[in-house]
Amino acid sequence: MSIEDIMSCMFGLKKFETETYFMVVNKGAITVNDLVDEFNKDRSTIRRALQNLAIAGLIYRDQKNIKNGGYYYTYRAAPFEEVKETTKYSIKKWSESMVVWIDNLEPD
């Protein structure tokens, strides 16, 4: 078992999405094009992974304005220490709820 496996389970992520999160953690602020180059995947695949990570609260999107007009987005990861704490808290709450559920089981 790995942290990627645990995060996939707790946040409902696919393996590639957790790989993307850790890439952003290691690289810092990064663009979709940077991730396309790193993973050699389609832009749509990268965008979908980033969207799912944002929904899970693991990635933040920042708009960067271009001086002569236009903009682009960079993505940054939620700090790994915060993600670890959130993951531990979620596991603890799930575990507590399972203990209560088991305690309330009755034979058929």
Describe the protein's topology.
Blueprint lengths: L2 H9 L3 H13 L4 H8 L3 H13 L3 E7 L5 E7 L2 H24 L5
Antiparallel strand pairs: 1-2
Helix pairs in contact: 1-2, 2-4
Notes on the structure:
Helix 1 packs across helix 2 and helix 2 (15-27) crosses helix 4. The mean pLDDT is 93. The relative contact order is 0.13. This protein has a two-stranded antiparallel ribbon with strand order 1-2. The chain is of the alpha+beta class and 108 residues long. The protein has helices spanning 3-11, 15-27, 32-39, 43-55, 80-103, and strands spanning 59-65, 71-77. A hairpin with a 5-residue loop joins strand 1 (59-65) and strand 2. It contains five helices and two strands. It has a single domain (3-103), classed as Winged helix-like DNA-binding domain superfamily/Winged helix DNA-binding domain (Arc Repressor Mutant, subunit A).
